Amino acid sequence: MTLDLTPGPVNVRDFETAARDRLDPAHYDYFASGAQDELTVAANEAAFRRRMLVPRVLRGGGPPRLETTVLGTPAAMPVLLAPTAFHRLAWPEGEPATARAAASAGVIMIAAMLSTVSIEDIAATGATLWFQLYPQPDMAFTESLVRRAEAAGCRALVVTVDSPALGRNERGDRNGFHDLPPDLHCANMREGGHVRQVVLSPHISWADIGRLRSMTTLPLLLKGVLHPLDARLAVEHGVDGIIVSNHGGRQLDTAAASLDRLPAVAEAVAGRVPLLLDGGVRRGTDVVKALALGATAVAVGRPVLWGLATAGEAGVSRVLSLLRTELENALTLCGATGPGEVTRDELGGILA
Ligand SMILES: Cc1cc2nc3c(=O)[nH]c(=O)nc-3n(C[C@H](O)[C@H](O)[C@H](O)COP(=O)(O)O)c2cc1C
Ligand SMILES: CC(C)CC(=O)C(=O)O
């Protein structure tokens, strides 16, 4: 008998290694890569590494409670699943496996418009969903997607605004990977016998946000804001929340790290709408840093894909439970009894 002494993945980074071992290299590259030199991908994580926490001591508050509510949606912790396309490339069942893990963990999954399983079939898992939209120039089609998301029970609409064009992905160019294999398709884009191509349009503007605002009573979030003036315009256009994000470094390479932009956006918004952040969150301490700099919650993209590619639903569950355990530990060590208590002032929180 041989004794297997490998402990299995103990953190998110280990899950990336495990996923890389399992995935077709071109598919691994699709998930892992960023635009061009991938400087923003690296900057997102580096920004978290650069910031150090200053904990408080002797507060005696007992174990932290992680529950929170984001724009009216309750969640077991302030960590959401960022919208990511093409889950069936990572695991045969695709998005429903991810959704079941999110449901078991009690967290919000932002379902991507470009999912490989339809929003109705993802919703059938019972998960708490928000819906991510790339507004399409065909407004009637865009509206039909919004109606489907509403009917499926999605509790917020997340409009991605950092994509007036597709970022230049050179790993994809080298691998010749530009589209889904023929056995997979973007299920929400299906219309009768054919599948619509997504349009990432440079004509998208605030007028479209106005149209979407009047189209739905769901909470409306903009995803991909980095500039404080855009954050202010978002509030003026009746947006309910903002996701500070550079799309995981996949769109404009050399765009600033999300975490580095959070303080300026928080100042511009001045508490009028909640802020979320994504990009480079890999540790519980990363979540604490984002909360301290003004986020209500964070979202994770690639960590979920690494869990999914490694072991399907069980892998995503494990990634979410690792992040939960790390967050609980980090809050305890910071002397905080919950996410709402983490502020820059009170925790002395963050030194740049
Ligand atoms: C493989 C992959 C696919 C993505 N697809 C989408 C998408 O369809 N829509 C979207 O708004 N963002 C998409 N994103 C961006 C994520 O929502 C999120 O902004 C980013 O992954 C956060 O960075 P992280 O991966 O470092 O956590 C995608 C990211 C990855 C890695
Ligand atoms: C096909 C892409 C538009 C999906 C996406 O947002 C991404 O890969 O980052």
UniProtKB/TrEMBL annotation:
Residue sites binding FMN per the record: 83-85, 160, 223, 245, 278-282, 301-302
GO MF assignments: FMN binding; oxidoreductase activity, acting on CH-OH group of donors
Catalytic residues (positions): 247
UniProt binding sites for glyoxylate: 30, 132, 134, 247, 250
PROSITE patterns assigned to the protein according to its UniProt record, in alphabetical order: FMN_HYDROXY_ACID_DH_1, FMN_HYDROXY_ACID_DH_2
SUPFAM superfamilies hit by this protein: FMN-linked oxidoreductases
Limits of the FMN hydroxy acid dehydrogenase domain: 4-352
Record keywords: Flavoprotein, FMN, Oxidoreductase
CDD domains from the UniProt entry: alpha_hydroxyacid_oxid_FMN
Stored Pfam families: FMN_dh
Keyword Acetylation: no
InterPro entries (alphabetical): Aldolase_TIM, Alpha-hydoxy_acid_DH_FMN, FMN-dep_DH, FMN_HAD, FMN_hydac_DH_AS
Cofactor annotation: FMN
This enzyme's EC code(s): 1.1.3.46
Annotated Gene3D superfamilies: Aldolase class I
Family note: Belongs to the FMN-dependent alpha-hydroxy acid dehydrogenase family.
Protein name: 4-hydroxymandelate oxidase
Species for this entry: Sphaerisporangium rubeum
